Amino acid sequence: MAQTLMAAETPKIVTVDVLRAVMSTEEGKIKIEKLKGEFEKEKAGLEALNMKGKKLQDRIQKDGAVMSTDERHKLEKELMEIAQELKFKEQQLKQSGQADQRQVVESMLPKFQQAMKQIIAEQKIDMVLRREAVLDLNPSLDITDLVVTKMNSIKD
Known about the structure:
The chain is mainly alpha-helical. The chain is built from five helices and two strands. The mean pLDDT is 89.
């Protein structure tokens, strides 16, 4: 009888991966696809810059021995500038991608919160932890897929 009483008092604790939940919804996938198009254009520009740098580096390696010192220094300087620009643009692209991801999550937060409230009430959940904050857990305690399903069923 004591075990039954203790089991009844055990709080129901689950986890949810907010980012995965939002990005796995139909709406989240559509929003991310739109952003990918813009991302691909930027990425193509990086690839072109990268190819320009590789061609320049190949030229320096191939013809460097027969070039004048001034010409070699000029090409090496240009290569350094390309490398710096490439690094800067890659960093910008990464930050832009993270900002876009945050924007998608923020735009869908009301729907996420509505889904969570419904699930918490239906399942009589006492505590929800962010999946990122938990080192290890039984997979049955992760309700992310349930949240995705619930969010997909909520109409705006």
